[in-house]
User: Fold this.
Amino acid sequence: MSYISSRRSGVSPAFRGVARGYPALAQRRQVRSVLNAPIRYSMYYLAATFVIFMFGPLANDVDNMFTLILFVTTSYVAFYIGYLTCTNSHAREFGGARLKTYDATRNNMLILIAGAGYFVIFGLNQLYEYGARDVGTIIQTIFDAGSAYKQKFDVYQIQALTGRVSLVGQVLVISSLFYGAFIPLAVLLWSKVSLLIKLMILAAIAVFQVSFLFIGTMKGIGDTFLFAVAGGAILIGKGRLNAAFDGISMQSSSSARYLKLFVVLFASAIFVYMVDNQIKRAAEFGIVYSRIVGDVSRTFINYLFGSDVAFGIYSVLAYPTHGYFGLSRSLAQPFEFAYGAGLSPAMESYRFQFLGGDNHMLLTFPYRAEIATGWPAGQFWSTAFPWLASDMSFLLVPVFMFLMGLLFARVWITCLQRDSLLAMVALGQIMIFVAYLPANNQVLMQRQGFWIVVTLLALWFAGLFRKKRARA
Assistant:
């Protein structure tokens, strides 16, 4: 296996001997490790959510435990096998040539600046729509998460009764590709842009985050976190492979350490905020008992920190886990085709809004399970699986997960091999898909995610058409 010369790659003479003697086997292991890193961490997360559920209070009420375990295990294993199938067949493409990095080209800078503008406009529009009129009100509301969350639903109700639609909001939804591109691109270009651009990026993110804190909602904050991880993963993956191709053993780079530190600090901050958020929501809405948390009075955390903190912590732990109980309820229902409403609730919302007719959402497994068992489809989660199964049956969901594994790996490989913006945005969406698997079909449930996917597919097909015409 050939290596790039130390002069071209920037390797110092001290490393030339190391490069010559760098074992080909070690290089191949490094390639395998980088290629399979996304599925490895994804499986850790997904397995952890299911284990936490199995040791939680809701597991005691599952009537079809064997079916639930068999289905979840089969689906996750199919996802894993699909991913490895793709990486195993493409591993030889990484033969030692250095990988192209994302550079501050004119197009990339235009997209970065447009993305920053998108985040600022989105944040300011959301603040305005939900009643923010001065800085004092914003700060006061942020520190009262329960009131902020209630205020959001009050605005929802007024909008539903009046039929009011924000034109700016609609334009932002349709142009959501900038939403998916900004954060990962900012991470990839951070070391290559000026201080002024860095300040612009931070200001845009700050406005965006404040708008979600103002309504006591974690959606935008969670997306920002996942997009940042997507960009950081690409940066570290390329760096580790290039180091291996240069013949340098790089088990842990400074970028990798910074990403891990970022993940730990950001995740910890989110956890603390969500615990406080849940405590204040309970106080605001008068919640003394949660169906998904149960009685916390006999728990160890209650003895240490009191009932309020225990309720908050168990509520947060239930967030990515209680969907498995909803899944167990849906598994007991017969199949009924939902005409695409399960695969993409956002698409169904558009169809119902503009064409009318029957509401196909009522045909999905979660809504029919609500009628049969009382588990509320709109309030609690049921994982993404019953939504997907509403249009393909539970028997075909493992097949779908196998294909999603293939797609996940193919997108990751493209991100490593090229500086593809489409693959970068797609990776962020797949990370959202994986993160919300135990909760719901997030990517195609929200109109933002729907438009990102539609735009990606349109640009991908346009690229194929251009290539076909060029060959002709």
Notes: Residues 326 and 375 are 7 Å apart (CA to CA). The chain has 21 helices and no strands. The first helix runs from residue 6 to 9. The mean pLDDT is 86.
